[in-house]
Amino acid sequence: MKGRSSASNPPNRFESRSYEHLDLDIGGDERPSVPTQFFRDTSRSILSKNDSPDVPFTFSINPYRGCEHGCIYCYARPSHEYLGFSAGLDFESKIMVKTDAPILLEKELTSRKWVPQIIAFSGNTDCYQPLERKLGLTRKCLEVCLRLRNPVGLITKNSLVLRDIDILREMATMNLVHVFLSITTLKPDLARVMEPRTSSPSNRLEAVSALASAGIPVGVNIAPVIPGLTDEEIPAILKEASEHGATSAGYILLRLPGAVKQLFLDWLPQNIPEKAARVINRIQETRDGELTDARFGTRMTGSGPVSKTIHDLFTLYRAKYGLNTTWKPLATDLFLRKETKQLRLF
């Protein structure tokens, strides 16, 4: 599909019926396009709680569900099935919008039950996907965090983050923010078919540079590392990250949960047929002969000799380029709890 990484809508595991686009011969090289649709999300809460030992935060905020970036490998795709959609084209073309996100966030942060701590933007889908340019929900949520002095960890694949550099700069002066740009590959042609509506790799690196110049702690996350396809780029990505001002780096090995596995397997021969078999074999070598592994402790890094080689390569070049800086913990003692006007009984 034009501008999409998914070529189909696989069946929803919770639904008895499914639909798919007709495979019609429309002539020539023209490919059909799938328009993006937006729906109001009426969720009554905005903070998602996580208890995974593999994730370094407890709460995250996702102003959007589904993601127009359309990364073919995205581990969040199966979450769209809970909404009655497909993890395929639906995930990147049917976007749920939490228009009340800033109001809900302020309500939760001013509750007496809230304990000041890092909130991750975003834990599931990118908070700076294309619609954010128009709606500004992420910016409004950041304004709430700044006003109440609640710390934020932010990760994105979109250089749109620079629009909010004024807020992030002010938060950085109080040690309230860390920012990560996720970079999968430096090859623009590969990025275009693998993550079609993200910012280009070069624009993401320019965003790293601009954030660093503004005094905002910024790092790069190589996510995901795709064995047999992008793992060889680890040294080059880390070198570019360092030269553009990043001071920290991390990586996550490719994960293929649920419907993502078949979507990725369909995508490989259609877009990089010459490497498809090699990529599949290398993934299996990092997952004990399987294509996915949901076990805590290994799902982010894999297991076996190939996984260790990737880990050692990353560790070596992270140290070489000075990206192993340990940032000091973000401040939680500056939090301003908004007092209610109701008189206290005691």
Protein architecture, described:
- The chain is of the alpha/beta class.
- The chain has one domain: pyruvate-formate lyase- activating enzyme (Alpha-Beta Horseshoe).
- 31% of the residues lie in helices and 13% in strands.
- The model is unreliable at 340-346 (pLDDT under 50).
Question: How are the secondary structure elements laid out?
Answer:
Blueprint: E1 37-40, E2 47-49, E3 59-61, E4 64-65, H1 89-93, E5 94-97, H2 101-109, E6 119-121, H3 132-135, H4 137-148, E7 152-156, H5 165-173, E8 177-182, H6 188-194, H7 201-213, E9 218-225, H8 234-243, E10 248-253, H9 260-271, H10 276-286, H11 305-320
Helix pairs in contact: 2-4, 4-5, 8-11
Low-confidence stretches: 340-346
In the CATH hierarchy, the architecture is: Alpha-Beta Horseshoe
Give the integer mean of the pLDDT values. Answer: 92
CATH topology: pyruvate-formate lyase- activating enzyme
Terminal CA distance:
63 Å
Strand content: 5-15%
What is the tally of beta strands? 10
Strand order of the largest sheet: 2-3-6-7-8-9-10
Structural class, from helix and strand content?
Answer: alpha/beta
Overall geometry: globular
Radius of gyration: 21 Å
- The CATH top-level class label: Alpha Beta
The major pleated sheet works out as: 7 strands, mixed
Number of domains: 1
User: What is the share of helical residues?
Assistant: 25-40%
Question: Helical stretch count?
Answer: 11
SSE ordering: EEEEHEHEHHEHEHHEHEHHH
Q: Summed up, what is this model?
A:
The protein has a single domain (37-320), classed as pyruvate-formate lyase- activating enzyme. Helix content is 31%, strand content 13%. It has helices at 89-93, 101-109, 132-135, 137-148, 165-173, 188-194, 201-213, 234-243, 260-271, 276-286, 305-320; strands at 37-40, 47-49, 59-61, 64-65, 94-97, 119-121, 152-156, 177-182, 218-225, 248-253.
